Amino acid sequence: MDILFLIGRTILGLYFLYNGVGHFTKRQMLVPYAKSMETPAPELAVPFTGLMLLFGGASLLLGIWMDVGASVLIAFLVPVAFIMHKFWGLADQMMAANQMAHFMKNIALAAALLTIIALHSMAEEVPFSIAP
Predict the structure, then answer these.
(1) For residue 128, is it within any domain?
(2) What is the dihedral of CA 46, 47, 48, 49, to 10 degrees?
(3) Sign of the C-alpha dihedral computed for residues 108, 75, 66 and 47 taken in this order
(4) CA 64, CA 60: separation in Å to the nearest integer?
(5) Number of domains within the chain
(6) For residue 129, is it within any domain?
(7) DSSP annotation string for 39-87
(8) In this predicted model, what pLDDT tens digit does every residue of 39-84 receive, in sequence order?
(9) pTM, two decimal places
(10) Helix, strand, or coil (residue 115)
(11) Are 110 and 85 in contact (CB under 8 A)?
(12) Which domain holds residue 64?
């Protein structure tokens, strides 16, 4: 079972690290998109959320402060679902379906992270962690 937890948190960690890097390498594309979705201070929000993704992804990958890292990721995912992926009320059905898929993905990832927090709190030690 420990190996399954390691595989799961490694995949999640890499996913969030990849997206965190994207917030910096694709900043020129993400800032105008965030602005179009009426995100407050998109020039600051995009790199700040990139840091959230990097921290959370690294914590999962390394097994260090996983409850804190998962909480930071939840704090990113839930507001982004409601701010950036508003599928309700869209006239274009294709756009609505696309945004709904992203909304549901964010909520499902937040649920997975809640599960990691719960498992982490029940475990005496984190399997395959570099933490002491």
Answers:
(1) no
(2) 50
(3) positive
(4) 7
(5) 1
(6) no
(7) -SSHHHHHHHHHHHHHHHHHHHHHTSSHHHHHHHHHHHHHHHHHHH---
(8) 999 999 999 999 999 999 999 999 999 999 999 999 999 999 999 9
(9) 0.88
(10) helix
(11) no
(12) 2-122
